[in-house]
Amino acid sequence: MVMNSSAFPLVWMNLTQEPGHDHQKDFDEFEANLRRGEPFVLLTDTVPTVEDHEHLPQEKKRTSLWMKKHKVELRRLVLGMILVEPNTAKRLAYKAFAAVFAKFWGYPLLLAESREQAVEMAKQLLPRDARPSL
User: Fold this and answer.
1) Considering the entire predicted model, what is its pTM?
2) CB-CB contact of 47 with 83 (8 Å)
3) Is 43 in contact with 8 (CB distance < 8 Å)?
């Protein structure tokens, strides 16, 4: 996961991972956004395949411990993750997963059919005084 926070409070994520990916850097980037203390929205148009997203048991444990440590900030500051998926059938499949995602991460998974729609959805989630003028 690579975060691009240059358009904060819209934070674009690339969820694909290369072999040897540094997960600590991911946690550090996420924490840097949480430390801002301002609400933000995560957006992505990359969806890893099951093979790409397999985690070792120690990675799962590390993620779980990190989430417990940051649970309050995640629920308060991350207003949602918007996944861009142009394929209608795939969006429907992700809707079923959205409830599990929200319970696990503490913020909703929303679906958009284009990047433009995702940005508009994100703007609606943000408080009026935090909306970017993109």
Assistant:
1) 0.87
2) yes
3) no
Contact criterion met (CB below 8 Å) for 122 and 10: yes
Q: pLDDT tens, position by position, for the chain (134 residues)? A: 788 999 999 999 987 766 666 778 888 999 999 999 999 999 999 876 555 556 678 777 888 898 899 999 999 999 999 999 999 999 998 988 899 989 988 999 999 999 999 999 999 999 877 666 55
Q: Could you give the CA distance from residue 12 to residue 109 in angstroms, rounded to a whole number? A: 14
Q: How many CB atoms lie within 10 A of CB 115?
A: 14
Query: How far, in Å, CA of 74 to CA of 67, rounded?
Result: 8
Q: Just give the CATH number of 2-128.
A: 3.40.525
| Phi, psi values for residue 81, rounded to 5° | -120, 130
From the list 58, 67, 52, 131, the residue with the least C-alpha distance to 104 is 67
Among the listed residues 3, 92, 72, 88, the one whose alpha carbon sits nearest the alpha carbon of residue 43 = 3
